[in-house]
Description:
This protein is of the alpha+beta class. It has a 5-stranded antiparallel β-sheet. It has helices at about 5-10, 15-65, 85-90, 90-115, 120-135, 135-155, 225-235, 280-285; strands spanning about 165-170, 175-185, 195-200, 205-215, 220, 270, 275, 295. It is flat and about 80 Å long. Strand 1 and strand 2 (about 175-185) form a beta hairpin. The protein folds into 3 domains: about 15-120, no CATH class; about 125-155, no CATH class; about 160-235, SH3 type barrels, CATH 2.30.30. Helix 4 (about 90-115) packs across helix 5.
Amino acid sequence: MTSAAQTHGPPHKGSRLLATVKALLRTRVTTGLIVVLPIWITILLVQFVFELMRDASQWVVYGFLRGDWLAALPEAYRPAFKAWSDEQLRRPGFQWGIGIVSVLFTILILYAIGLLAANVVGRRMIDAGERLVDRVPLIKTVYRAAKQIIASLAGHEEQRRFRRMVLVPYPSEKARSLGFITAVRRDIISGAELYVVFIPTPPNPATGCVVVVRRSECVELDWNLEESLRVVMSGGILMPERVTLEVASQAPPAAEPPALPGAGGEALTGDSGVVAASASPTAARQGVRPGGAARRAE
Protein backbone atom coordinates (compact mmCIF):
# COMPACT_ATOMS: atom_id res chain seq x y z
CA MET A 1 0.00 0.00 0.00
CA THR A 2 1.45 3.34 -1.04
CA SER A 3 1.68 6.04 1.60
CA ALA A 4 0.33 9.56 1.12
CA ALA A 5 3.87 10.96 0.99
CA GLN A 6 4.80 8.55 -1.77
CA THR A 7 1.61 9.36 -3.65
CA HIS A 8 1.95 13.14 -3.62
CA GLY A 9 5.74 13.21 -3.63
CA PRO A 10 7.97 15.76 -1.85
CA PRO A 11 6.70 19.33 -1.28
CA HIS A 12 7.04 21.55 -4.30
CA LYS A 13 9.99 23.94 -4.13
CA GLY A 14 7.88 26.68 -5.65
CA SER A 15 5.46 26.73 -2.69
CA ARG A 16 8.35 27.08 -0.24
CA LEU A 17 9.79 29.97 -2.22
CA LEU A 18 6.40 31.65 -2.40
CA ALA A 19 5.88 31.36 1.38
CA THR A 20 9.36 32.78 2.02
CA VAL A 21 8.71 35.71 -0.31
CA LYS A 22 5.36 36.42 1.37
CA ALA A 23 6.89 36.35 4.86
CA LEU A 24 9.80 38.54 3.77
CA LEU A 25 7.49 40.98 2.02
CA ARG A 26 5.18 41.21 5.03
CA THR A 27 8.10 41.80 7.39
CA ARG A 28 9.72 44.47 5.22
CA VAL A 29 6.44 46.28 4.56
CA THR A 30 5.62 46.30 8.27
CA THR A 31 9.07 47.68 9.06
CA GLY A 32 8.62 50.35 6.42
CA LEU A 33 5.27 51.37 7.87
CA ILE A 34 6.78 51.64 11.35
CA VAL A 35 9.41 54.01 9.96
CA VAL A 36 7.15 56.06 7.66
CA LEU A 37 3.96 56.43 9.73
CA PRO A 38 5.46 58.56 12.55
CA ILE A 39 7.07 60.85 9.96
CA TRP A 40 3.81 61.13 8.04
CA ILE A 41 1.79 61.91 11.19
CA THR A 42 4.36 64.54 12.21
CA ILE A 43 4.15 66.16 8.78
CA LEU A 44 0.35 66.23 8.95
CA LEU A 45 0.45 67.82 12.40
CA VAL A 46 3.00 70.46 11.34
CA GLN A 47 0.98 71.17 8.20
CA PHE A 48 -2.20 71.59 10.23
CA VAL A 49 -0.55 74.07 12.63
CA PHE A 50 1.10 75.94 9.75
CA GLU A 51 -2.17 76.30 7.83
CA LEU A 52 -4.01 77.35 10.99
CA MET A 53 -1.50 80.11 11.75
CA ARG A 54 -1.27 81.12 8.09
CA ASP A 55 -5.01 81.45 7.57
CA ALA A 56 -5.35 83.53 10.75
CA SER A 57 -3.55 86.52 9.20
CA GLN A 58 -3.21 85.74 5.50
CA TRP A 59 -6.08 88.05 4.64
CA VAL A 60 -4.17 90.93 6.23
CA VAL A 61 -1.08 90.23 4.10
CA TYR A 62 -3.17 89.90 0.94
CA GLY A 63 -5.01 93.15 1.71
CA PHE A 64 -1.73 94.97 2.28
CA LEU A 65 -0.14 93.73 -0.96
CA ARG A 66 -3.27 94.49 -3.02
CA GLY A 67 -3.36 98.01 -1.59
CA ASP A 68 -6.80 97.71 -0.03
CA TRP A 69 -5.67 99.85 2.89
CA LEU A 70 -4.98 102.81 0.59
CA ALA A 71 -8.69 103.46 0.16
CA ALA A 72 -9.02 104.20 3.88
CA LEU A 73 -6.50 107.07 3.68
CA PRO A 74 -7.21 110.56 2.35
CA GLU A 75 -5.89 111.02 -1.15
CA ALA A 76 -3.45 113.68 0.00
CA TYR A 77 -1.81 111.27 2.46
CA ARG A 78 -1.65 108.21 0.26
CA PRO A 79 1.95 106.99 -0.21
CA ALA A 80 3.43 105.94 -3.52
CA PHE A 81 2.66 102.23 -3.22
CA LYS A 82 2.53 99.86 -6.15
CA ALA A 83 -0.27 97.39 -5.52
CA TRP A 84 0.09 93.77 -6.59
CA SER A 85 -2.44 92.16 -8.85
CA ASP A 86 -4.28 88.95 -8.03
CA GLU A 87 -2.49 87.21 -10.88
CA GLN A 88 0.89 88.02 -9.36
CA LEU A 89 -0.21 86.86 -5.93
CA ARG A 90 -1.36 83.48 -7.30
CA ARG A 91 2.11 82.49 -8.47
CA PRO A 92 3.47 79.42 -6.62
CA GLY A 93 6.60 81.15 -5.44
CA PHE A 94 4.62 84.06 -3.99
CA GLN A 95 2.20 81.67 -2.28
CA TRP A 96 4.97 80.15 -0.16
CA GLY A 97 6.39 83.56 0.67
CA ILE A 98 2.99 84.93 1.63
CA GLY A 99 2.34 81.87 3.79
CA ILE A 100 5.61 82.26 5.72
CA VAL A 101 5.03 86.00 6.19
CA SER A 102 1.49 85.28 7.42
CA VAL A 103 2.76 82.78 10.01
CA LEU A 104 5.37 85.27 11.25
CA PHE A 105 2.73 87.97 11.43
CA THR A 106 0.46 85.68 13.48
CA ILE A 107 3.32 84.97 15.91
CA LEU A 108 3.93 88.72 16.19
CA ILE A 109 0.25 89.33 16.98
CA LEU A 110 0.26 86.60 19.65
CA TYR A 111 3.36 88.12 21.21
CA ALA A 112 1.75 91.56 21.24
CA ILE A 113 -1.39 90.15 22.91
CA GLY A 114 0.72 88.40 25.54
CA LEU A 115 2.67 91.59 26.14
CA LEU A 116 -0.56 93.53 26.51
CA ALA A 117 -2.02 90.97 28.94
CA ALA A 118 1.08 91.19 31.12
CA ASN A 119 0.54 94.82 32.16
CA VAL A 120 -2.22 96.41 34.22
CA VAL A 121 -3.96 98.25 31.39
CA GLY A 122 -4.11 95.20 29.16
CA ARG A 123 -5.34 93.03 32.03
CA ARG A 124 -8.19 95.45 32.68
CA MET A 125 -9.13 95.48 29.00
CA ILE A 126 -9.22 91.67 28.93
CA ASP A 127 -11.28 91.56 32.13
CA ALA A 128 -13.75 94.04 30.62
CA GLY A 129 -14.06 91.86 27.53
CA GLU A 130 -14.61 88.74 29.66
CA ARG A 131 -17.37 90.51 31.58
CA LEU A 132 -19.12 91.19 28.29
CA VAL A 133 -18.75 87.53 27.29
CA ASP A 134 -20.20 86.43 30.65
CA ARG A 135 -23.47 88.15 29.76
CA VAL A 136 -24.08 85.84 26.81
CA PRO A 137 -25.69 82.62 28.15
CA LEU A 138 -24.24 79.95 25.86
CA ILE A 139 -20.98 81.60 24.85
CA LYS A 140 -19.85 82.22 28.43
CA THR A 141 -20.08 78.50 29.26
CA VAL A 142 -18.00 77.47 26.25
CA TYR A 143 -15.48 80.28 26.79
CA ARG A 144 -14.93 79.59 30.48
CA ALA A 145 -14.57 75.85 29.94
CA ALA A 146 -12.14 76.31 27.05
CA LYS A 147 -10.10 78.82 29.03
CA GLN A 148 -9.79 76.54 32.05
CA ILE A 149 -8.79 73.55 29.92
CA ILE A 150 -6.13 75.51 28.04
CA ALA A 151 -4.82 76.98 31.29
CA SER A 152 -4.60 73.47 32.74
CA LEU A 153 -2.63 72.16 29.78
CA ALA A 154 -0.38 75.23 29.75
CA GLY A 155 0.34 74.81 33.46
CA HIS A 156 -0.59 78.28 34.63
CA GLU A 157 -0.63 78.89 38.36
CA GLU A 158 -2.56 76.26 40.32
CA GLN A 159 -3.64 74.46 37.15
CA ARG A 160 -0.28 72.62 37.12
CA ARG A 161 -1.95 69.77 39.00
CA PHE A 162 -3.36 68.64 35.64
CA ARG A 163 0.17 67.48 34.82
CA ARG A 164 0.05 64.89 37.63
CA MET A 165 -0.91 61.32 36.76
CA VAL A 166 -2.50 58.92 39.25
CA LEU A 167 -3.91 55.40 39.36
CA VAL A 168 -7.45 55.28 40.70
CA PRO A 169 -9.59 52.26 41.69
CA TYR A 170 -11.85 52.30 38.62
CA PRO A 171 -13.97 50.55 37.36
CA SER A 172 -13.57 48.21 40.35
CA GLU A 173 -11.54 47.98 43.54
CA LYS A 174 -9.21 45.36 42.04
CA ALA A 175 -8.43 47.33 38.86
CA ARG A 176 -6.61 50.62 38.42
CA SER A 177 -7.16 53.26 35.73
CA LEU A 178 -4.84 56.05 34.64
CA GLY A 179 -6.12 59.57 35.16
CA PHE A 180 -5.11 63.23 35.47
CA ILE A 181 -5.74 65.19 38.65
CA THR A 182 -7.89 68.15 37.60
CA ALA A 183 -8.90 69.50 41.03
CA VAL A 184 -8.40 68.92 44.76
CA ARG A 185 -11.32 69.25 47.15
CA ARG A 186 -12.13 68.54 50.80
CA ASP A 187 -14.96 66.29 52.04
CA ILE A 188 -17.38 68.55 53.92
CA ILE A 189 -18.30 65.76 56.39
CA SER A 190 -15.19 63.70 57.04
CA GLY A 191 -12.65 66.34 56.06
CA ALA A 192 -10.76 63.84 53.86
CA GLU A 193 -8.85 65.18 50.88
CA LEU A 194 -10.47 64.29 47.56
CA TYR A 195 -9.06 64.13 44.04
CA VAL A 196 -11.14 64.99 41.00
CA VAL A 197 -9.61 62.76 38.32
CA PHE A 198 -10.15 62.84 34.57
CA ILE A 199 -9.73 59.36 33.06
CA PRO A 200 -8.96 59.70 29.32
CA THR A 201 -10.09 57.18 26.74
CA PRO A 202 -7.27 55.74 24.57
CA PRO A 203 -6.17 56.67 22.00
CA ASN A 204 -7.93 60.05 22.17
CA PRO A 205 -7.02 61.85 25.42
CA ALA A 206 -9.66 64.53 24.79
CA THR A 207 -12.51 62.19 25.76
CA GLY A 208 -13.12 60.21 28.92
CA CYS A 209 -14.91 60.33 32.26
CA VAL A 210 -14.51 62.14 35.58
CA VAL A 211 -14.42 60.43 38.98
CA VAL A 212 -13.98 61.69 42.54
CA VAL A 213 -11.85 59.51 44.83
CA ARG A 214 -10.11 59.84 48.17
CA ARG A 215 -6.47 60.80 48.01
CA SER A 216 -5.60 57.85 50.24
CA GLU A 217 -6.94 55.48 47.57
CA CYS A 218 -4.85 56.94 44.71
CA VAL A 219 -1.39 55.87 43.57
CA GLU A 220 0.50 58.99 42.52
CA LEU A 221 2.99 58.50 39.67
CA ASP A 222 6.11 60.51 38.91
CA TRP A 223 5.44 60.67 35.16
CA ASN A 224 5.61 63.97 33.33
CA LEU A 225 2.90 65.18 30.95
CA GLU A 226 4.67 63.88 27.85
CA GLU A 227 5.03 60.37 29.26
CA SER A 228 1.41 60.36 30.42
CA LEU A 229 0.07 61.37 27.00
CA ARG A 230 2.23 58.75 25.30
CA VAL A 231 0.74 56.04 27.52
CA VAL A 232 -2.81 57.12 26.71
CA MET A 233 -2.31 57.59 22.97
CA SER A 234 -0.44 54.29 22.58
CA GLY A 235 -2.95 52.29 24.58
CA GLY A 236 -0.33 51.42 27.20
CA ILE A 237 2.35 50.19 24.79
CA LEU A 238 4.72 53.01 25.76
CA MET A 239 4.17 52.76 29.51
CA PRO A 240 7.24 53.72 31.58
CA GLU A 241 8.85 51.14 33.83
CA ARG A 242 8.30 53.36 36.88
CA VAL A 243 4.90 52.04 37.93
CA THR A 244 3.49 50.55 41.13
CA LEU A 245 0.11 49.63 42.55
CA GLU A 246 1.13 50.23 46.16
CA VAL A 247 -0.58 53.24 47.73
CA ALA A 248 1.91 55.55 49.42
CA SER A 249 1.40 56.07 53.14
CA GLN A 250 -0.68 59.12 53.88
CA ALA A 251 -0.20 58.88 57.62
CA PRO A 252 -0.40 62.24 59.46
CA PRO A 253 2.66 63.52 61.33
CA ALA A 254 3.25 62.11 64.81
CA ALA A 255 1.41 63.95 67.56
CA GLU A 256 3.12 65.47 70.60
CA PRO A 257 3.67 62.95 73.42
CA PRO A 258 1.14 63.25 76.25
CA ALA A 259 2.12 64.79 79.58
CA LEU A 260 3.20 62.32 82.24
CA PRO A 261 1.22 62.53 85.48
CA GLY A 262 3.12 63.93 88.47
CA ALA A 263 2.36 63.77 92.12
CA GLY A 264 -1.32 64.21 92.72
CA GLY A 265 -2.04 63.69 89.04
CA GLU A 266 -0.38 67.00 88.02
CA ALA A 267 2.11 67.36 85.20
CA LEU A 268 5.54 68.91 85.52
CA THR A 269 7.15 70.79 82.68
CA GLY A 270 10.85 71.56 82.52
CA ASP A 271 12.32 74.76 81.22
CA SER A 272 13.49 72.91 78.11
CA GLY A 273 9.90 71.91 77.24
CA VAL A 274 10.29 68.28 78.34
CA VAL A 275 7.34 66.94 80.29
CA ALA A 276 8.29 64.88 83.35
CA ALA A 277 6.95 63.75 86.73
CA SER A 278 8.30 65.23 89.97
CA ALA A 279 10.74 62.94 91.79
CA SER A 280 9.94 60.18 89.30
CA PRO A 281 12.46 57.38 88.65
CA THR A 282 11.50 57.49 84.95
CA ALA A 283 12.32 61.17 84.79
CA ALA A 284 15.60 60.58 86.56
CA ARG A 285 16.57 57.90 84.03
CA GLN A 286 15.69 60.28 81.15
CA GLY A 287 17.94 62.98 82.59
CA VAL A 288 15.18 65.39 83.64
CA ARG A 289 15.85 66.99 86.99
CA PRO A 290 12.85 67.02 89.33
CA GLY A 291 13.99 70.28 90.89
CA GLY A 292 15.42 73.46 89.45
CA ALA A 293 14.71 72.94 85.75
CA ALA A 294 11.45 71.17 86.52
CA ARG A 295 8.78 72.99 88.45
CA ARG A 296 5.21 72.23 89.35
CA ALA A 297 2.69 73.41 86.78
CA GLU A 298 0.41 75.97 88.20
